[in-house]
Amino acid sequence: MNYLDFEKPLAEIEGKAQELRALARANSEMDVSKEAEALDRKAEAALRDLYRTLTPWQKCQVARHPDRPHCRDYVAALFSDVMPLAGDRGFADDQAVFGGLARFNDQPVVVIGHEKGHDTKTRIEHNFGMARPEGYRKAIRLMDLAHRFRLPVITLIDTPGAYPGKGAEERGQSEAIARSTAKCLEIGVPLVSVVIGEGGSGGAVAFATANRVAMLEHSVYSVISPEGCASILWKDAEKMREAAEALRLTAQDLQKLGVIDRIIKEPLGGAQRGRKETIEAVGKAIEIMLKELSAKKPDTLIRDRRNKFLEMGTKGLAA
User: Fold this and answer.
1) Which of 63, 122, 281, 305 could covalently link to 117 via disulfide, CB atoms 3.0 to 4.6 Å apart?
2) How many helices (H) and strands (E) does the chain have?
3) Cα angle 141, 311, 297; round to 5
4) Domains of the chain: which residue ranges?
5) How far is CA 285 from CA 87, 100, 193, 223, in A?
6) Residue ranges of E strands in the chain
7) Non-local CB neighbours of 256 within 8 Å, separated by 6+ positions
8) What backbone phi and psi angles, to 5 degrees, belong to 249?
9) In 3D, which of 196, 247, 204, 235 has the Cα closest to residue 57?
10) Is 247 helix (H, G, I), strand (E, B) or coil?
11) CATH 3.90.226.10: does it fit domain 61-310?
């Protein structure tokens, strides 16, 4: 188990329980079951207390936890007959963006998502989930395909933001993001998005301008990372805690503001402690959101999607 900084008290309790059980395995005459169970109860209570009062910055840490399920984990568990489609037909294939044809509950769909990787090698291979222009152009190509063949689009968001490197800027990063966002608004098929970890900046919006947007309970979604915000506003990245508070980036805040439609509950301790349960909950949420949209005509889907984003931020304002 990888423990976050604020989970250190919990790590000590669970570590003691593991030590007791290791001693019992080494000495068959030793009975430590009562002591170990008492520590387990104490650990569960501590875990419940910790996750009941998470600050926005702590939620950022949970959203970035390396053991959370990533895009390919969801694709492998929830979709069948997966046919990855590579490349933007212009420059290259971006490994930070997964996309292709698949079946969800036996329904043909197009699935697109950011992939971060699960260890050092794969994180480098997938550029830590930071897409380049060719990744967004691949997504545009797949959304065009979905529109042509009337296939619902499902997107899984997990990125700190679009890649800010020199090559990406030379190849038109901002233009590619803008065109991907515009394509989301143009397609006449159901489009549902789930923020499964980080939803960072335009790199996330380019896939999440959807009819329905859901977030996992401890995921985050913001115009900029707390560290980036702190560096700009206070010239000090160490003020990320204050920035996280100000950005209103938690699922709970964003639902109140009308930015997202649904919060998907995570197991106690976050998705990293219950990967299977989390993936099943995301699958159920996607199923519900697609059913809500299934009877709508293409023109209605486009109009509702556009209005959803045009009206964002106007709730509660006087006419």
Assistant:
1) 122
2) 14, 8
3) 50
4) 7-53, 61-310
5) 29, 20, 10, 24
6) 79-84, 97-104, 107-114, 153-159, 191-200, 212-216, 220-222, 262-264
7) none
8) -100, 0
9) 247
10) helix
11) yes
Q: How far is CA 165 from the centre of its chain?
A: 22
Collect all residues with Cβ–Cβ distance below 8 Å to 220 and sequence separation of at least 6.
Answer: 56, 59, 60, 63, 195, 198, 199, 249, 250, 251
Hey, what are 277's tokens?
Answer: 């349960």
**Quick one: residue 189, left, alpha or beta (phi over 0 = left, psi -120 to 50 = alpha)?**
beta
Question: Does the structure show a pLDDT above 70 at 317?
Answer: no
pLDDT digits (tens, 9 = 90+) for 26-35: 676 666 777 7
SS3 for 111?
strand
Residue bearing tokens 């995921």: 219
Dihedral angle over CA of 127, 233, 249, 175, nearest 10: -50
CA distance 288 to 284: 6
Task: Return the amino acid letter for 298.
Answer: P
Residues 86-139 have pLDDT tens digits of 999 999 999 999 999 999 999 999 999 999 999 999 999 999 999 999 999 999
- Cα end-to-end distance, the chain, whole Å: 52
pTM of the complete model: 0.91
Q: 208: closest CA among 269, 217, 197?
A: 197
Q: How far apart are CA 20 and CA 39, in angstroms?
A: 10
- Which residues partner with 108 through β-bridges? 103
C-alpha 319/C-alpha 196 separation (Å) is 36
**Residue owning tokens 């003691």:** 16
Cα 229–chain centre separation? 20
- Kindly state the greatest CA–CA separation across the chain: 76
Q: Which residues of 31-59 are buried (b: 16+ CB within 10 A; e: fewer)?
A: ebeeebeebeeebeebbeebbeebebbbb
3-state secondary structure of 192: strand
Amino acid at 182: A
72, 123 in Cβ contact below 8 A? Answer: no
